[in-house]
Amino acid sequence: VASQIELGSAALQDLRGIATDDPMRAVQGLPGVVTGDDFQAEFSVRGSAFRHVGIVLDGIQAPLLMHAVRGRDDTGSIAMINSDVLDRASLLAGPHPLRHGDWLGATLEFSVREGSRDRVQLRGTISGTSAAAVLEGPLTPSRKGGWLFSFRKSYVDWLVRKLDPEISSTIGFADAQSLFTLDLTSRQQLRLLLVGGQAIYREQETSVANGLSRAASTGGLVSLGWRYAGDTTLLSQKLSASVSTFTNTGLRSQDLGEGTTSSLVWRGDARRNLGAAWSVEGGVRYEQTAQDQTLRRYTTTPGGGVRVTATRAVEANTTMTTVFGQIARRTPAWGFSAGARASRDTHSGDHWVSPWLLAEATRGRLTVRASAGASHQRPSLEYASAALEPLRTESARAADLSLDLRLTGTARLQVTSFVRDERDIVRPMGEDRVVDGRRVAGPTFSLVASRLDGRARGVDVLLQRRAARGLTGWIAYTWAHTTHDDIVTGERFDGDFDQRHTINVFLLQRLSFRSAASAKLRLGSNVPLAGYFTGTTDALQIAATRNQVRLPWYVRLDLRANRTFTFSRRRLT
Question: How far is Cα 255 from Cα 154, in angstroms, rounded to an integer?
Answer without folding.
Answer: 26
